[in-house]
Structures are given as C-alpha cells and as structure tokens.
Amino acid sequence: SCYLYFDIKPLAMNTILANKIISDERSGAITGLFTTNTTGIVYRVEDDWGDSYIFAGAPTDNWLYFANYYWRIIRINGDGSIRLIYSGNKQSGPSEIGENTQIGTSPFNEQNTDNAYVGYMYGSIGASSYASTHTNTNNSSVKILLDNWYLDNLLQYAQYISTEAGFCNDRNLLDESDDLWSSDTKLGYGDNETAYGIYKRLVEQNHGPKKEQIPSLKCVRSNDLFTVDKSSKGNHDLVYPIGLITGDEVVLAGSFFGNNSNSYYLYTNQSYWTMTPFIYDYAWSRVLMLNENGGLNYQMVNNGSGVRPVINLSADVSLSGTGTMSDPYVVEGAE
Q1: H-type helices in 57-177, by residue range?
Q2: Tens of pLDDT along 220-251?
Q3: For residue 156, what are the CA distances in angstroms to 153, 242, 286?
C-alpha cells in the first residue's frame, strides 16, 4: 500500500474566522459610537463581492505583520481577500497612536476650487459636465504619495497582494428628490455646490448628523471603484493596488459622524484622510477625514492630513499567529 499526504494550508479568511462569533448587528442602521471590546467577534456586511466580515469597536485580535510593516485588519472582503490599514513599521513596532501609524502627511489635492478635486483621480478643471469633471485622468496628490510608497516598499511583495479587490471613491450624486442640503445643485462640476453619495447615508439636514447612519460597503458607480486591470470589477485605472479607507468603513468600525471617540481601533490621536468625497461648498472641495480626536469630519482637500495606506492581501495567502499585538498574524513566506 502507498499513501498520499496533502499539506493543505487554510485560506487566510479561515484562519481569521476560526472560533470567531459572526454577528449581523452592524448590517443596518448605526445609531452611535461603538467602543466595546469586541475581541473574538466580526460583523457581517455585504460588499460588491459578497459577505464581508468587518472588525469593529476595540478588538485586540486584528493585528497583522506583512512586508516589514504592521497593519490592522479592517475586514475580510467578499472575495476572501484581507483588507489592511497601515499601523507601524519594523523599526517602531506596532503602533496604536501617534505619527508612526501613518507614512506621512499630504494634501488630498493641492488645489480645492473645483468639484474635480474630490477625486482620487480626476478629470478636467472648469468643465461644464459631470462626466468630464470626474473622468480618471489625473492623479490626486495623495494617490501619487501612495503609489510611490507602494513602488518603494511593497512591489517586491506583489504576489501576496490582491489584484481583485478595489477602493471606493464614491462621487455619486444625490437624487433629485433629496432635499438634505438647500444649496445642493446636484451637478458635480465646476464650482457648483454639490453633495456626494455618503452625504445621504450620514447627514440629516445641512451637514447635521443623522441619528441613524447607514454606511455601505457597495460602490454605486463602477467609475468610482478603483481597481487594477486584472480585477473583474471597477474602473481598472490603478497601476498599483493601494488606496485609503472609506468613510463608510470608518463608521462600520465604530465611529459616528458628528462625534469624537478615542476608544475604537481606528483612533490614532492623529488626523488622517479617508477616500470619501463629502461636499463642494463655498468654493472648496471637501473629503472626509478622521480628526485627532477620532471623529469623522470633513476637510478641505488642500489641507495636510495623515496618510495611512490600505491594501488587500490575496485570498489564498496563509497566515500564522493569533492576531494580537504581541503575536500578530504573519503572512507565510513574506515575513
């Protein structure tokens, strides 16, 4: 007799979800800050690929070490890839607060006097149509920084990074029937005052926070889902598969628009950018950011804020470790 032995390694999502409680409690309306110690729990929310499993509150088991950097796991994407946000380097060690949680600071865009500048990439300045304004022709300042950082630090680890998952820069306009902001032209080009998609999900009237906020992990427009050309979805306009966290992910992780908190895992005592457009008003483009008090707020794009890279590990990587700060998950082969 002869025997065949197969060394079958579990997919990363299976390692992370092992012995976890899966809850659906964050799949609907969010009614306030979420700061509970949620170690051992993940929350199921649907994204563009299927069921996503998101970390929220104050977990201690979503640390990961990859490519000489420390990361926090934001969520398992619907395609099984693992979404990470930067949280320290090998020299400084894992960092929860302070400047070591980011790679530097940057304006989102150098200019802010056109609707185009809410874009991670953008089109023509002074255009007379939404389509021309929001074509993906020019790189934002923050995208240039992230692309260069990827080229210098992650390109050699590209085999472990997903080319399927994407990053949503939601430039969708409000419906004609929405009357949440009296100045909203619903045009989205030139210097026309405009509210963007997340406004409806988080805002009640004239920039005031809703009592029930409804974040989404789905990207309404394919043109706003930034992916590389190997992905089955999105705009295929990225050269490198790197981006930023979204405002929706921040709310799902424990924030609440209009409130500060230092008690959930995305708080760093620093201000840093999300990838989510908010409004164009008073001749200023504004994008959502986390302020130094842990609150989700909106910022003029030409102001400097911290930059925390977000990447997605491939679904088929193998992990060791337990996910704690002292024993983070480690991508096997890319230690």
Answers
A1: 130-133, 141-153
A2: 999 999 999 999 999 999 999 999 999 999 99
A3: 7, 14, 35
